[in-house]
Amino acid sequence: MKQILLSLVIIVLLCAPSSLSIKTKLTKKLTNYCTTLADEFPQIPEARQADLRALGQYLFEKVKAEEEIKLTVICTHNSRRSHIGQLWLLVAADWYGIDNLHAFSGGTEATAFNVRAVDALNRAGFKIGGTNSIDNATYGASWHRGSRPNAKTLMFSKKYDHSINPKENFAAIMVCSEADESCPIVPGAEARFSLPFDDPRYFDGTASEALEYDKTCRLIARDIFYAVNHAKELMVIDAEGSK
């Protein structure tokens, strides 16, 4: 009986999702944050779910084709929502075990990565380091245990067509209505997804500032996790069908 139980344990471990080891590498605070996101999926309106599933379908098709996934998150100033979306895409890819996903961000104009958004991400469990002592400072980010923020993420405000962003074979994710309307065409994008979020900047300097930034961070995380989870579900269905 012990041998049978041992064999079953081994089978379970071998069949466990590849993302399991990645999850254990996230910061403890971020792991706790991510663990609860799926519980909120039912709160997403059906129309929004459909838009997010379209993004998930795109991710699945890129994985199935064994192609590199490049996503540029775009808002007007590349100061808040687009940076938040960029980081959550990278974490969601880790969480669900989707390889070769690269996330970028940009705006219709450059300003600065707003320190309030930086603070909200740090409160969620990221480790973001940099300085706001100069205009448009560059920040580094990390979300794994034992690692330090680094400039490889190159988080600073820039236009969506900046030299570090992809020029072709990428998807544009529009996270604000203003950028969506002012950029009806994003040159080089092979797909475009309109997923606007309310701008937390309207609460800057108010008593509810931190609460509203945390709320925006949570909404973006939830929606992105829903989309990436859908891609993972399609991958599992496809794998089962090919057996």
C-alpha-based Rg, rounded = 19 Å
Number of beta strands: 6
CATH topology (fold) name: Rossmann fold
Strand content range: 5-15%
Along the chain, the helix and strand elements come as HHHHEHEHEEEHEH
Helicity, as a percent range: 40-55%
Average per-residue pLDDT, rounded, comes to 88
Q: CATH first level: which class? A: Alpha Beta
How do the strands line up in the largest sheet?
A: 2-1-5-6
Oligomer: single chain
Number of helices: 8
Note the overall shape: globular
**Could you state the CATH homologous superfamily?**
Response regulator
CATH architecture: 3-Layer(aba) Sandwich
| CA distance, first residue to last residue | 30 Å
Structural class: alpha/beta
Most strands sheet: 4 strands, parallel
- Point out poorly predicted stretches: 1-20
Query: How many separate domains?
Result: 1
